[in-house]
Amino acid sequence: MIKAVIIEDEDFAVNRLRMLLEESADDVEIIAMLDSVQDAVRWLSVHEVDLIFLDINLSDGNAFKIFEQVDITTPVIFTTAYHEYALRAFEQYSIDYLLKPISREKLGQALVKYRTLRQVPKTLDEDHFRQLFEEFMPRKSRKKLMVTLGNKMKVLGIRDIAYFISDSKVTYVHTFDNKRYPVDASLRQLESELPEYDFFRVNRQFLIGRAVITELHYISPIRVKVLLSLPSKEEILVAREKVGQFKKWLTE
Question: Among 136, 157, 180, where does a domain finish?
Answer without folding.
Answer: 136
